[in-house]
């Protein structure tokens, strides 16, 4: 027992402790609240985009349609209900399938976005007459909300009912693949050199400090750099997946270098000494012993770096990847767009139907990012090693 | 020079020597101890000769002109209080100190008459002749088999398959580990107990058939039983290898070594055959340390 009377001060200390704990808990609760709000809001906004109004109509592949009078493909009464954009694709379809000219077919065809919004109970521009028609068709079962395949199979469009994320997804795959191809080897090899081979001198320390600083630079700067170097100097085509990939590779490099160095540093020196002690060359020690141990960490860091690059919009604005790009690229030099850029573009559109597509696009992007990060966590857990 | 490094193990095998014959013939001090050249007695061959070795870590001088000879196929123990430079000296012999950026060395360390700090010496080859066992067991986080097979494979000593299997078995047997691990060669080496890990590290070291094995406090992380096993092993291995062991444990030095060197503040204070060292040291400083009055 202490000889000093601690009773009052101990009570005070315990009270302070409880208070502090409560502050921390409420901070966590706040954060969770925001997160929950964010998800609920996004899902409730984005969910409707997965459904699209469709109308049952008889489509006649007449010669007039093939000649360009696509509106004549369906009954006159339905022309205000069906999507003009969808009808507009018919002449091209028929020129590719001339054997079908003269046939007729009953199909569920995409409805106009105003009808779509009306069915979903959202504000819309549908006129009273057409509302009545829509109500009647709906009652007859000739108008429905079906799964919006177009959202996943079509590129961007100026008609919201036809706008999809397909071209953005293809563009994202191209850009991310290129980012990986450029950033991974350079980043990992830089990290290996700095961590395992570089002498400890002023120049190397300067390089290290600069790499650490680069990781904290606003990403839009990398866009400017990409514009200046890749587009203006090397003449890489604007908006292309190549320039996007190169720019994002620049941005991701510091992250990959830093995480790869941390992973290499985490391999205990005793392993290096053990390998060198039996006469392995530094390269053999690295290749046979250190790299295999550091690889999970390097990959985890790289995946997180790539996920970050995938969600990046700002540098891509500068290199021209924010544009109306309805078709998916077929090679790395063609104009492409990426998911966040597509979301950014839609977010600026005034029509209500784009708002729900924006939210749905964000949901898709989030799902991909979460699964990438989940994979990184799994990798780390799977190969985690304690010394 | 390089020929010597590729040489296939020690060239001449010398019969065991009467240990009671002191390293220093008459003198009482270090100068005599170290001058004990093998000229007088042809059975006493110096494997390692260290001449006026000085070493700096940056501005700090860690070794102050060490001169000593280490006998072939004997166990030499380095003792002394922490920070006296004994591990540093040990790591000079296989040039592990090269890894430390601001470490400077002056003087000469020669292995079988060859200066190992000459520019043309290949460090990789040197380290196959001078193996090292570390303080903390550091098996590679791979299978037991792979721990042994790694070095022979990268040096091209043994072919994959039965030749390698044999080599692995021989090394494990000589490290006294075979019976304990023969059924689990494909299990990770890190799953073994501390003592077994350390013997695995010794087996890994002898797999490249070095001339010298350096041991840097090999038992400091082990329990007494595991320690006894390692000491037993050292006793067997000295028939074939020159062993230098750094230890904090004076009893251990007395038990396993033939010669003992006492270091203090980066200087070699006394170097004697172990019996003399522990029964009638010539320097009071040594006596004080051995009897536990300081250090």
- The top-level CATH class of chain B is Alpha Beta
Oligomer: heterodimer
Question: Which series of helices and strands of chain A comes N to C?
Answer: HEHHHEHHEHHHHHHHHHH
Helix content of chain B: 25-40%
**What sort of overall outline of chain B do the alpha carbons produce when their principal axes are compared?**
globular
Structure description:
- The complex is a heterodimer of chains A (387) and B (295).
- Chain A is built from 16 helices and three strands.
- Chain A is mainly alpha-helical.
- In chain A, helix 1 packs across helix 16, helix 8 runs parallel beside helix 11 and helix 12 runs antiparallel to helix 13.
- Chain A starts with 6 loop residues before the first helix and ends with a helix.
- The mean pLDDT of chain A is 89.
- Chain B is an alpha/beta fold and 295 residues long.
- Helix content of chain B is 35%, strand content 23%.
- Chain B contains twelve helices and ten strands.
- Chain B has a six-stranded mixed beta sheet with strand order 6-7-8-3-9-10, sandwiched between helices.
- In chain B, helix 8 runs parallel beside helix 9.
- The interface between A and B is medium-sized, with 20 and 26 residues.
What key phrases describe this protein's structure?
heterodimer, A: 387 residues, mainly alpha, MetI-like fold, extended, B: 295 residues, alpha/beta, Rossmann fold, four-stranded antiparallel β-sheet, 12 helices, 35% helix, 23% strand, globular, disordered N terminus
């Amino acid at each position: 027992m202490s000889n000093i009377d601690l009773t009052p001060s101990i009570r005070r200390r315990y009270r302070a402790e409880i208070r502090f704990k409560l502050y921390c808990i409420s901070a966590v609760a706040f954060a969770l609240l925001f997160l929950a709000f964010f998800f609920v809001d996004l899902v409730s906004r984005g969910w409707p985009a997965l459904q699209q109004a469709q109308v049952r109509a008889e489509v006649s592949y007449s010669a007039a349609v093939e000649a360009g009078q696509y509106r004549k493909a369906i009954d006159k009464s339905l022309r205000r209900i069906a999507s003009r954009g969808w009808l507009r694709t018919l002449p091209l379809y028929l020129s590719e399938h001339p054997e079908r000219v003269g046939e007729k077919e009953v199909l569920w065809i995409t409805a106009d976005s105003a009808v779509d919004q009306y069915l979903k109970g959202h504000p819309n521009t549908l006129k009273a007459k057409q509302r009545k028609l829509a109500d009647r068709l709906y009652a007859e079962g000739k108008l429905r909300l079906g799964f919006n395949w177009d959202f996943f199979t079509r590129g961007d469009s100026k008609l919201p009912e036809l706008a999809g994320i397909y071209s953005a997804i293809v563009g994202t795959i191209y850009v991310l693949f290129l980012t990986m191809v450029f950033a991974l080897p350079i980043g990992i090899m830089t990290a290996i050199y700095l961590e395992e081979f570089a002498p400890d001198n002023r120049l190397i320390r300067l390089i290290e400090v600069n790499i650490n600083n680069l990781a904290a630079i606003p990403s839009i700067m990398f866009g400017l750099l990409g514009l200046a170097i890749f587009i203006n100097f090397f003449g890489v085509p604007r908006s292309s997946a190549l320039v996007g990939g190169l720019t994002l590779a620049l941005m991701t490099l510091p992250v990959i270098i830093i995480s790869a160095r941390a992973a290499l540093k985490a391999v205990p020196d005793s392993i290096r000494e053990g390998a060198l002690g039996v006469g392995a060359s530094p390269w053999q020690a690295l290749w046979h012993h250190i790299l295999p141990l550091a690889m999970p960490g390097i990959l985890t860091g790289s995946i997180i770096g790539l996920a970050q690059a995938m969600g990046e919009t700002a540098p891509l604005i500068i290199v021209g990847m924010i544009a109306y790009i309805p078709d998916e690229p077929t090679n790395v030099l063609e104009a492409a767009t990426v998911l966040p850029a597509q979301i950014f573009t839609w977010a600026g559109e005034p029509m209500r139907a784009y708002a729900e597509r924006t939210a749905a696009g964000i949901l898709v992007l989030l799902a991909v990012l979460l699964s990438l990060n989940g994979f990184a966590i799994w990798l780390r857990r799977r190969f985690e090693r304690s010394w | 020079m390089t020929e010597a490094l590729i040489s296939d193990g020690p060239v001449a095998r010398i019969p065991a020597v009467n240990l009671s014959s002191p390293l220093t013939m008459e003198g009482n001090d270090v100068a005599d101890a170290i001058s004990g050249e093998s000229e007088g007695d042809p059975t006493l061959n110096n494997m390692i000769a260290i001449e006026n070795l000085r070493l700096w870590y940056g501005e700090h001088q860690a070794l102050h002109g060490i001169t000593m000879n280490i006998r072939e196929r004997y166990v030499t123990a380095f003792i002394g209080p922490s920070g006296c430079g004994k591990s540093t000296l040990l790591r000079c012999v296989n040039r592990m100190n090269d890894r430390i950026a601001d470490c400077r060395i002056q003087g000469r360390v020669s292995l079988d008459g060859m200066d190992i700090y000459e520019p043309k010496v290949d460090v990789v080859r040197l380290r196959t002749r001078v193996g090292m066992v570390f303080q903390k067991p550091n098996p590679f986080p791979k299978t037991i088999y792979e721990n042994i097979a790694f070095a022979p494979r990268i040096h091209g000593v043994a072919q994959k398959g039965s030749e390698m299997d044999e080599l692995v078995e021989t090394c494990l047997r000589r490290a006294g580990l075979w019976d304990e691990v023969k059924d689990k060669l494909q299990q990770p080496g890190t799953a073994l107990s501390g003592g077994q890990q350390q013997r695995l590290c010794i087996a890994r070291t002898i797999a490249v058939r070095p001339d010298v094995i350096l041991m840097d406090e090999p038992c400091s992380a082990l329990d007494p039983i595991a320690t006894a096993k390692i000491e037993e092993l050292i006793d067997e291995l000295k028939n074939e290898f020159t062993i230098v062991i750094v230890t904090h444990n004076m009893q251990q030095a007395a038990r396993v070594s033939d010669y003992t060197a006492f270091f203090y503040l980066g200087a070699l204070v006394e170097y004697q055959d172990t019996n003399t060292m522990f029964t009638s040291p010539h320097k009071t400083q040594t006596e004080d340390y051995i009897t536990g009055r300081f250090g």
